[in-house]
Amino acid sequence: MSSAPAAQDTPVLQAEWPLAVSVTLGSAVRAKGIGQELRARLPVLARLGLKAEAGRLVLSLAQSEEKLFEAASAIVERNLVQMAVLPVLPREVEDILAIAPRERLKWTKDGRLQSAGTRTVKLRGRAKAVTFHVFDPRFIEDVLDRDMPALWREEDKETASQNRKRAAGKAALKRKAGQVPTEAASEPLRPDQPAEARPRLKGWDAFSDDGLLR
């Protein structure tokens, strides 16, 4: 932490802490989330003074709030070390891995994107609480380092191609099954054609003997 009064025309106390890439995983969204998490742990009067900026956290309070400033600074320093293991939220995962929400949902459902559990929160403006999966930061870091989303996209393309071929094959078999020709369908009957020369259907004689044609 570095701490120093700001310029004379802005009489505030200010402290800042670097946010390592190992903590933010290179995501501005996660940096903002870490700032919000730390802000929630500060005294109410100090919360608005903490902001997440490019690669750092900055705490700014009026000089008249020196005791509050010292207390808030101590809380940030004490809790900052825990941020490296803070679960990664869905929006953070999407930003870190550069994936779409539908990809996150699909890969979480089929187990490729391993969930570290769920969290339930009540959002402003919503009557019901929302439950969502969270992820281990070290797992997400490994997925990022190995560029697994690119591999998973290729797997999904191959699976989709196989499914299309399978569906096309089933459709072809269904069409073929519905087009079974009869023996008499190969040559139309002519009125002048002798009876003995006309094609006979299987079972015709038995059908005639029963008298059903009279």
Automatic annotation (TrEMBL):
Biased composition (Basic residues): 163-177
Region (Disordered): 154-214
Compositional bias segments (type: Basic and acidic residues): 189-203
Superkingdom assignment: Bacteria
Protein name listed in UniProt: DUF721 domain-containing protein
The species this protein was found in: Mesorhizobium liriopis
